[in-house]
Amino acid sequence: xxxxxxxxxxxxxxxxxxxxxxxxxxxxxxxxxxxxxxxxxxxxxxxxxxxxxxxxxxxxxxxxxxxxxxxxxxxxxxxxxxxxxxxxxxxxxxxxxxxxxxxxxxxxxxxxxxxxxxxxxxxxxxxxxxxxxxxxxxxxxxxxxxxxxxxxxxxxxxxxxxxxxxxxxxxxxxxxxxxxxxxxxxxxxxxxxxxxxxxxxxxxxxxxxxxxxxxxxxxxxxxxxxxxxxxxxxxxxxxxxxxxxxxxxxxxxxxxxxxxxxxxxxxxxxxxxxxxxxxxxxxxxxxxxxxxxxxxxxxxxxxxxxxxxxxxxxxxxxxxxxxxxxxxxxxxxxxxxxxxxxxxxxxx
Length: 348
Prior knowledge:
Largest sheet: none
Structural class: mainly alpha
Distance between the termini: 10 Å
Low-confidence stretches: none
Helix content: over 70%
């Protein structure tokens, strides 16, 4: 083993401190009131409806019709907080921040157990937790950040390396992954990515059982999307259900996606570098480096990470509704950790 260079020793010492600072910054962003976004009001109303009336209805609509746009798991969690803790806004807002910490830590632990270098993983975790965009959304009652927590937990608990005599074991992983679909409809990408991992690992029987279970969940997902599209023709569900010229959408929106990825990677740089072209180059370079690392080095978990990364990118490109930056958080999470893995292989 080579002797650690001075720069390596500095990084090993700085990584835990950076993570601690990121946690402090996350805590400094907390808010006691309702986060001022339309989705926050909707989720808060759904949680209140479930807690007070036992029904999944739109409290803010005339006649309180049944709600069919958002999956119910996150509102159920908010309803449980209202019932168990008297509806404290601080606790409801803090659920997202807690899940961000738990999910980021869970993904770092999983990759460390798979053999990835720990110091770069700590740095990646610090960049995730300390990201300006994630910090603010973590304290809002929306499903964007809680979904990342679910992704991290699934990655930690799913049997990535186990080859055992019981091929039904991935069904346990399926039971863990399906709730992510109940938090965000885009959780279907998570299910598909886990199936890709099983296929890449040549675990045929396990992949078949997982695919059957995922297929049942996907059918329920599709039916929900069709219902939501019929009720709200202008929603993202309508775009998903309607299909469209996917290749045209990809070509049209790729520059915007690259720019927003670059802006997410350097969330404060837009104040001093107000040139979209720089962020497009940064986003393109980061994606290219990450995919090259996964394709050439093939670290443990590469198939899952590549499928999850590309699946979310294609979803954002194909459905214009998903172009706002917050829908790219599922891209940011694996991207930072893969870039950290590339750094780890080069220095540690």
